[in-house]
Amino acid sequence: MPEAVIVDAVRTAVGKRKGALREIHPVSLGGHVLKALAERTSLDPAVVDDVIFGCVVQAGEQSSNVARWSALAAGWPETTPGTTVDRACGSSQQAITFAVASVMAGHYDIAVAGGVESMTRVPMGSNRRNGPGKAFGPDIFARYGQEEFSQGLGAEILAERWGFSRTELDQLALDSHARAHAAAERGDFADHIAPITGLTKEGAEFTFDTDEGIRTGGTLESLGGLTTVFKEDGGVITAGNSSQISDGAAALLIMTPDKARELGCTPIARIHTAALAGADPVTMLTAPIPATEKALAKSGLSADEIGIYEVNEAFASVPAAWMREIGVEWDRVNPNGGAIALGHPLGASGARIMTDLVHNMRRTGTRYGLQTMCEAGGQANATILELID
Fold this sequence. Notes:
Blueprint (H helix, E strand, L loop, with lengths): L4 E7 L3 E2 L9 H16 L8 E5 L11 H8 L8 E4 L5 H15 L4 E9 L18 H8 L6 H12 L3 H21 L9 E4 L5 E4 L11 H5 L21 E10 L1 H7 L5 E10 L9 H12 L8 E4 L5 H10 L12 H4 L3 H19 L3 E8 L3 E9 L2
Parallel strand pairs: 3-4, 3-5, 10-11
Antiparallel strand pairs: 1-8, 1-9, 2-8, 5-8, 6-7, 9-12, 11-12
Helix pairs in contact: 1-2, 3-12, 5-10, 9-10
Organism: Brevibacterium gallinarum
Family: Belongs to the thiolase-like superfamily. Thiolase family.
Keywords: Acyltransferase, Transferase
């Protein structure tokens, strides 16, 4: 069976809600990273078998198969197909998994996988507003006794179950910002961010090439002054220790090693192992733990052999609980910051994380990296990458 390798990966800088990317249509955001990917690799888009994008809120400007329209917006040939995937926050990580599986099965020689989300222009929940009833229906209510499921309350359940204090979670958030700031100052993101024209608060155009959500100067005292969002009495989850609502896009070029040699491309990493897991949809956010365990078991690798872990910081309690159960220290998790600092543009986040991960692995010479994400409904993806010497 052929392997699947990542030749290159690129992303936009992540914009804050109503920030620098507020006036850019999500199709244009998606087209921007596709165009940049082709330019960086001298890729003829006509040879791409499929463009697979993740996007969560497929409504309004993100409806009608945003992957296909992004490819056309990039100026790619009309013969280039595209399809759009929704596995909640893991949508673009799942898009990558589908692309990898198709390449390994021999159905595709070359695929582009990624994702896009403009949470400014298409707010969360926009895709649930039509129709006469609730999103999940009476059978789900009969099974779980509720019509709505809250990730925020799930984050509070995690904190209570594993005994994390507000101070511990706030400190994790401060570390995320400090790490992201240090990485940006070192230029660690510069080699794979595709600059785009953004807008200042005043409406002036500027070259947007730095993640907008990174903050400096925060303290435990300043974070401690924020109110809890989901649970007033005894709650620990606040806007300060949760991921940021964001805009952004990312894309990765995936192909067989033979095709890479034919095109004169030098792959960065191979996809070593992929796994999925499901868990309780009420707590919702625990599935990265069994997904990681499954990926490690399938790979034959131990947790100690993974040099870099990326665990999406949907809420600080998610990586905190994951570390407690998997037995991995914080210094190997999200070394360049996570979604608390960098932002979480839902459908783009899996591809954003993998883009940062694969370039960080190459920069540091790290052989194995693993990323995992919690997803609404109590699911998670986990993917292990192996650096190519």
